[in-house]
Amino acid sequence: MAMTPAEQIHQRALDRAKAERLQTFRLMSGQYAVRSRKLAPGSFHVVSQDAAGALACDAQCPGYFYRGVCAHTATVERRVARERRSAAS
After folding, report:
1. Please, how many CA atoms are within 13 Å of residue 63, restricted to the half-sphere of its CB?
2. Pick from 68, 64, 49, 57: which is nearest to 6 by CA?
3. H or E element in which residue 53 lies
4. Maximum CA extent, the chain
5. What distance, in Å, lies between the first and last C-alpha atoms of the chain?
6. Whole-number Å distance between alpha carbons of 43 and 74
7. Three-state DSSP class for 25?
8. Domain ranges, ordered by start, for the chain
């Protein structure tokens, strides 16, 4: 089955997050800092996770601003999934 445009954008963000091997740092419950490598090397974007699990990147990320998903949110999504799998085993 073909992916919708939104699914394609989300998959590209996941692929980019994996390829760029972005680093994440837990700031506090539900907040992560993700290093920016392309737009502003050396700086960080803050990704927040709400109680329902939805992720949002700060306003400085143009990818998130325009598409509602970015490599930073995808990186945190991958980290959260890994942590859940570790906790389950």
Report:
1. 21
2. 68
3. none
4. 40
5. 32
6. 18
7. strand
8. 12-88
SS3 84: helix
Closest CA to 77 of 17, 25, 36, 35: 17
Q: What are the tokens at 66?
A: 């325009």
Residue type, 80: V
Q: Which residue has the tokens 């942590």?
A: 83
Q: What is the pLDDT of residue 56?
A: 95
* Whole-prediction pTM: 0.85
Tokens describing residue 50: 């709400």
User: What residue has token string 């109680």?
Assistant: 51
What's the pLDDT tens digit per position in 11-70? 998 898 888 888 899 998 899 999 887 766 778 999 999 999 999 999 888 889 999 999
